[in-house]
Amino acid sequence: MAKKTAPRLSLTINLRIWILVILVVITFGISFGMTFYGLNQLKKTIDSIAHNSFPQVMMLGDIRAQYMQMHGTTYELASTSDATQSAEVEKRLAALQDKVFKGITGYEASITDESVLAVLTEAKMKMASYLAKIH
Asked: Is the pTM of this model over 0.85?
């Protein structure tokens, strides 16, 4: 009888090892699948930011930089008393205004959200009011 229990016990241990190996493989497969799915979702989000949001942020940065440059040019215009220098500064101011308006038009074409469009419309009205004051 002792001889019969030893092979039977050995077979049970082999069977248990195979079951554990199969469970480990299944667990790794599930873990890999979940990781792959999560990384794929992250890639889609990063691509969306890179292709949709980031160019808009860059456009806004350019508009803001030109608008801030307009402030300095306006102060320069207000502080000069020379007519020729004043005419030159006015030309630069007009060129900056054109750049800002072109930037706003380009940004407005890329907007799909109504709330952002409402904020942009309000900003355009405030800018028009500012420009009316300096002219």
From this structure: no
